[in-house]
Amino acid sequence: MRMGRNTMFRSLFDKVWKFAAIAAVLLIIPRFLGIYTIYIYSWLLVYLIAAYGLNLILGYAGQISLAQAAFMGIGAYVVAILVTRGVSFWIALPLGAVLSFGIGLILGFPALKVKHHYLAMVTIGFNVIMYKLFENQEAVTGGYYGIFDITRPSLGALRFESDLAYARVIAVIALIMVIIMYWILNTRWGRAFKMIRENEVRAEIVGVDIRAYKLVVFAIGSAYAGVAGGLLAPLLGYIEPTLFELTISFDFLLMVLIGGRGRFEGPLIGVAVVMLLPEFLRITNQANLLIFSAIAVVVLLVAPEGGASLWDWIFKRLTGKNPPSLTK
Amino acid sequence: MILQLIIGGTATGAIYALMAVGFSLLWQTSQTINFAQGEFVAAAAFIMLIFYDALNLPYVLSLVLTIVVAVGILGVLFRKVVVERLIKTGLLSLICATIAVSIMVRNSLIFYTAESMAFPSIVSKEAIPLLTIRFSPLDVLNIGLAALVIVALQLFIRKTKPGKALQAVAQNRDVAQVLGIDVGRMTALAFAINAVIVTFAAILVAPVYAAKYNMGLALGLRAFYAAIIGGFNQTRGALIGGLLIGYIEVFTIAYVTSQYSEVVILLIVIGIILFKPEGIWGTKEVWSREL
Amino acid sequence: MPMEMQTVFKIRDLRKNFYGLRALDGVDMEIREQELLGLMGPNGSGKSTLLNCMTGVLSTTGGRVYHRSRDITGWKASSIYKLGIARTFQLVQLFPEMTVLDNMIGAIQESRGSMFSRLFRFSEEWEKAKAQEILDFLKIAHVKNNLAKNLSYGQQKLVDLGMVLMSDPALILLDEPLAGVNPTLGREIIEHILELVKVKCCTVLIIEHNAKIMLDICDRIVVLNEGRKIAEGPPQEIKENPEVLKAYFGA
Fold first, then answer.
1. CB C82 within 8 A of CB A188
2. Distances from the Cα of B70 to the Cα of A29, A69, A223, B200, B262, angstroms
3. Which of A221, A289, A252, A247 is CA-nearest to residue A127?
4. For chain C, what is the mean pLDDT?
5. Has residue C1 got a pLDDT over 60?
6. Under a CB-based contact definition with an 8 Å cutoff, are residues A53 and A220 in contact?
7. Cα(C113)–Cα(C104) distance, rounded to whole angstroms?
8. Which of A151-165, B51-65, C111-125 has the lowest mean pLDDT?
């Protein structure tokens, strides 16, 4: 047992300094980016958080959610409404996350009863309903035009007003969210998720509380989207309903599919492709979507159960080695 | 006024019904949930435009060619490349794939044109006042043609040999296989029929709402709503569901709320999913839990 | 040796209908402490259905199920598992994309502690040691880091059995453990089963088609036909029972 504890601490220390190194890199990069690129950088990290949420729901628990955009909206509007009324960002953001968690939990109940296309429909329905509410409840959400003048946060004497400063705030929060996800997936919960995904009946027999895990996955995944939305509001300085319409939820699905659902680095790949490819290929928005969806279909055809074998194969061809696996 | 709404509702409902029936056919014969059904209609509309507008071919010839191309791409190609491969993995992968395909189609149509294109109609769109109601020949065509297609489909299924085989596969795949029916061929037939159905739906809806690259999304969703409410493991469920959605939409916009009309429909859809997932006219599916 | 064998499991008048089909039509059966009970019958006689009803995988249409005089009729599968009743499956049911070791640990990780505490559990030394012990017992320790889907059919069957053993079950139900397995491996499996009963004092129920083996190893045999029990007793009696012969070979 003593031996066990020592190795445990050593591997923990290992991980801590790796994450610290990543944090340092993330904080330094924006220093060297131009105004526009910092903006892309920030967007990428925001979307990354939401994508991780969806990857948890879809890739690990095998549930389909086409409502991530709606939850982003919830997080965003909570922050927008509260911050424009003088509440601190540092209170509004967690509040948005908690609200998303709660509503996600409620949405999780249908996920228990129905599967697949029915669940997809319920989440689509939720997204459309939220969108209509965002668009029409003018008194609360500013209706069609949305909410503006959302100021960026400050912490005591530190002000994160500038693009550079706020990008760093986003980077730190994104890293924290990813670390939390890494932690969750590497504990027994991660194994339980896998069991549910691979053989639900056997999982139930060996005692996995399917209901509880599915509910919690929906809640956490949706909370992640809520955090992403909360960060988005001050990034743009304004929010409006079209940011959270149904097609955005489809975009998140594409990101998770492209990266390979159920893989820890999946969202990284997916978001990178979707956000960065357009910067290299200067083509229309629709042409980009065409490419992304085509890639998604190819990935699905190559690795239908998820697991990003397409990227494994490419990695192998380029480097001649097997790609490392980040989680068990 | 009510009569007016009923006519309007039937006209739009007829289109939703057509799409939902095709959707239901794919589900029954091959357990395929085609999230791209709406985009298929849009694609068919655009293919028609290519023949009619760009190549200036006469209407009927364009229609025939469109049907051929639609069957080839939306029927055969779609099935061979996407569905065949993924159906063994599971419904979730298939659903993700058809969603991705729908995005693909939606964003490829824009290469023809980003604008709203006027779509040809064989009859006038002008409303003819009759007593207190106004209806256009196009409305009549909508209802008439949709009814014709559905009746033709039913006749095909009931009276012809391949039709009966198709029905057998739809009712019980395994038994049909044992009886010697080539299930693969029947499934291909179902996809082909769906392609024809969506083409007809396209020529009915596009004249009214114009053809735009993103027209498929709203249409597809409503076909889906129709299928769920009516029950898509029975053709008549899809049919009635489509009409119902048409009526609900028209009446809600007229009497209750215009911005939230889709919300009203959605609440009904979600209610059905939670409490009677097989739909109002569908039958309970048996999910086997045997190990 | 106890004077009177304790009853571990009892079934009274069990019925199961599938849309009008009477899969089980009033079956009475009991399983005694530390015995190796065989369950036989032609295809479709209801053996697997009986097992499924016993373990909470299927709901019953009528009758009662008892575990050590506790009425467990209608209990959920996971609750029955927690009582120490574990089963294997006719069609092997593993978690294909997980390693053998993960499969084994997964089989018991949910049986202790709360869901919340599992978020903080990092050390799995105890579980790994136990899995190692069982894998050694089954002689498949060398594949412990392979993905379950990459194993041969025979190895998968052993993993299935291994998962069952992780929970230290007192009652083990084996659904055709020899199906599709080559004779050498089959003999090994039988040896393991006998060891479980004689050495580790488990109680085992085994469903199998291979009559010769069953008559050879079982302490008692129950025979089903068309959802009813038609014979019960030691192998010698079963071998000569006319009803049994009729069921298997026709009149």
1. no
2. 50, 33, 42, 11, 30
3. A247
4. 85
5. no
6. yes
7. 17
8. C111-125
DSSP line for A281-314: S---HHHHHHHHHHHHHHHHHH-TTSS-HHHHHH
What gap in Å lies between CA B222 and CA B217, rounded to an integer? 9
Nearest-Å Rg of the Cα atoms of chain A is 20
Q: Give pLDDT, residue C173.
A: 93
- Inter-CA distances, C88 with A270, B104, C72, C107, C202, Å: 40, 45, 20, 12, 15
What tokens does C52 get? 């499924």
Spatial contact of A109 and A215, defined as CB atoms under 8 Å apart:
yes
Annotated domain spans of chain A: 1-32, 35-246
Residues of B in contact with C57 (CB under 8 A): 289, 291
Q: Is B2 helix (H, G, I), strand (E, B) or coil?
A: helix
Q: A90: left (phi > 0), else alpha (psi -120 to 50), else beta?
A: alpha
Q: pLDDT band for C251, please (50, 70, 90 cuts).
A: very low
Do C118 and A328 make contact, defined as CB atoms within 8 angstroms? no
Reply yes or no on whether the pLDDT at A288 is more than 50.
yes
| Chain C residue with the nearest C-alpha to that of A205 | C78
Instruction: Of A197, A82, A201, A56, give the one whose Cα is nearest residue A151.
Output: A82
Q: Answer yes or no: is pLDDT of C198 > 90.
A: no
Residue B40 pLDDT class (50, 70, 90 cuts): very high
CB B272 within 8 A of CB B229: yes
Nearest to B211 by CA among B52, B44, B77: B44
Give pTM, 2 decimals.
Answer: 0.85
pLDDT in tens, A175-193: 999 999 998 988 888 889 8
What is the complex's ipTM, to 2 decimals?
A: 0.87
Please tell me the predicted confidence (pLDDT) of residue A325.
58
Q: B76-90, pLDDT tens digit by residue? A: 889 888 888 888 777
pLDDT at A309: 64
| Vertex B261 angle, CA B257 and B265, to 5° | 140
Q: Please, what is the Cα angle at C78 between C65 and C141, to 5 degrees?
A: 115
- Closest residue of chain A to C92, computed from CA coordinates: A202
| DSSP-based three-state secondary structure for C9 | strand
Name chain A contacts of B97, Cβ cutoff 8 Å. 297, 300-301
Within chain C, where are the H helices?
47-54, 77-82, 100-109, 125-137, 153-166, 183-198, 211-217, 235-240, 242-249
Domains of chain C plus CATH, in order, are 1-84+169-251 (3.40.50.300), 97-167 (no CATH)
CA gap A202, C121 in Å, rounded? 22
List the single range of A75-84, B37-46, C190-199 with lowest mean pLDDT.
Answer: C190-199
The pLDDT assigned to A1 comes to 44
Give which of C99, C108, C119 to mutate to test A binding, by max A Cβ within 10 Å. C119
Contact list, A213 vs chain C (CB under 8 Å): 115
Looking at the complex, does the CB of residue B289 fall below 8 Å from at least one CB of chain C?
yes
* Tokens 């029947």 -> residue: B186
